[in-house]
Design a protein that fits this description.
Number of strands: 6
Number of helices: 5
Order of helices and strands: HEHHEEEEHEH
Largest sheet: 3 strands, antiparallel
Helix content: 25-40%
Strand content: 15-25%
CATH superfamily of the largest domain: Winged helix-like DNA-binding domain superfamily/Winged helix DNA-binding domain
CATH class of the largest domain: Mainly Alpha
CATH topology of the largest domain: Arc Repressor Mutant, subunit A
Structural class: alpha+beta
């Protein structure tokens, strides 16, 4: 029987993927963009490996996954302070802009849901979809 190594995901490819996500700062990328990045480097990493490592990084809380319409997703490095776990996000369905939203009204709503309804919102998975002001002003909505 083949024995699994407990550190099987602590590979050089996993480190390269994490390093790439860190280098992006708070920018968001799709898995396809990550694949394209590594296709253009000397360290080519297969698509399946990239998807597997992105899932692992999400599970570890190192990157955040945003579900887009159509079932695809984009990813963002959270960093050690995990500041993105402390606020809501707005996603423009027209241009794709992701806005980090610090809003006292939504903070109050979150507190209300916890205290009055015994329900805690998972901010890692909370994104509100709509149209940003720039797209509204430009008539793109």
């Amino acid at each position: 029987m083949k024995q699994r190594r407990p550190d099987r995901y602590n590979t050089s490819n996993g480190k390269r993927i994490l390093d790439y996500m860190v280098s992006l700062g708070d920018r968001h990328v799709t898995a396809h963009q990550v694949v394209q990045h590594f296709e253009n480097t000397a360290a080519v990493i297969g698509q399946t490996t990239i998807y597997r490592h992105l899932e692992r990084l999400v599970a570890e809380g190192k990157i955040r996954q945003y579900r887009l319409s159509g079932g695809s997703a984009c990813y963002q490095y959270i960093g050690p302070d995990k500041a993105c776990q402390e606020h809501f996000h707005l996603k423009c369905e027209t241009c794709g802009t992701l806005i980090h939203l610090d809003c006292t009204l939504l903070d109050k709503m979150q507190g209300h849901l916890l205290h009055e309804h015994d329900f805690q919102i998972n901010l890692l998975k909370t994104t509100l979809y709509g149209t940003c002001g720039a797209c509204l002003a430009g008539g793109k909505a």
